[in-house]
Write a structure and sequence with these properties.
The structure is a homodimer of 163-residue chains. Chain A is 43% helix and 18% strand. Chain A has helices at 13-30, 37-46, 55-64, 71-83, 125-137, 154-159; strands at residues 87-90, 95-98, 109-113, 119-122, 141-152. Chain A binds a DNA duplex (30 and 30 nucleotides) through α4.
DNA sequence: TTGCAAATGTTATAATGTTGCAAATTCTTC
DNA sequence: GAAGAATTTGCAACATTATAACATTTGCAA
């Protein structure tokens, strides 16, 4: 059914990031894509938490790094990372999160907590199936499916059950 | 299963708009909400087609109308219309479409043609159900579900089947 | 080591969306 | 119908997000 319960489940996030970076290197090598220092740094920043990060947030950190970066630097890196399935853009937030299913071409479903901002990416075959059938019923040919669910994650439900 | 096949099915769009405006008036009256001239005009503009319209597109037409409008005018009207379920915002396009299921509180599913830009709003109970179950499996409490499917509508599939 | 393609730097600008406050309008209550 | 409250609008400035265009550099291959 669902896959991973990060970030709602406690986990060693440093290892989480390290894994993501290692995966990214492997994927890029395999695809003959160049994970340059800037791109890798941006990926690392995106992975600093499971909360989506805006392009200009990334830019600010690069600037702190001493990197003389401008918006296109960040947007290009993000485009690259998206194209290689390493990050996702969350349209409802204009922000980016690390992909927890890197490598496979997929359209995740995102559970976005409105309280703590953490985002959980799921692959839910039943949902994909239902969407596909609904589109077919209209003779529509789906190419890109975006599912973003805003609400309360388990932890925040407990903290504030009566919102 | 699915409801209406507009805009893919040929239809009398003037009647379509007239109906939408009539519905809007009824809904606002029922909810004690004020469908002021500006709000009504914005709704009418949004309904000029089934293609999503950007806030600044609306603004441009208002200006042509002779209405001395600024961005807040448009955004406020759009907020109002959204709150009363009369229009939807398509996050992946930063644009707005008329709601074809006005009145009921709902989270539609949108089929967005990348070729002709028309958007079809569906209510697909199976999808809603599957999403809800996937969220439950993570103990996530959904509040707002956004499903946007980009692809090719039936008409554009015929015109360009081999994209 | 030259030459090409990919990646980056740089400047400017476009597109989208918000804040804050004042003025006008509408609604309510007396 | 007038006073006061609440909603709506006007308006100016500004904040945020994203892209265009073109020069420069870097990495790689012939």
């Amino acid at each position: 059914m669902s896959t991973s319960a990060l970030p709602y489940r406690p986990h060693n996030h440093d290892a989480c990031v390290a894994q993501a970076l290692a995966d990214a290197r492997a994927i890029c090598q395999q695809q003959n894509a160049r994970l340059t220092p800037t791109r890798e740094r941006v990926l690392e920043l995106i992975w600093q938490s499971h909360k989506p990060l805006g392009a200009y947030d990334v830019l600010a950190v690069l600037t702190e790094d001493g990197h003389n970066a401008a918006p296109p630097t960040v947007y290009r890196a993000l485009d690259f990372l998206q194209q290689h399935g390493l990050v996702h853009r969350i349209a409802s937030l204009n922000a980016f999160v690390g992909c927890t299913h890197a490598g496979k071409h997929h359209n995740g479903m995102f559970l976005i907590c409105r309280s703590c901002s953490n985002v959980l990416e799921l692959t839910a075959p039943e949902v994909a199936q239902a969407v596909s059938e609904a589109a077919s019923a209209e003779a529509f040919q789906p190419e890109d499916v975006m599912i973003e669910v805003a609400g309360l994650c388990p932890a925040c439900r407990v903290d504030a059950p009566h919102d």
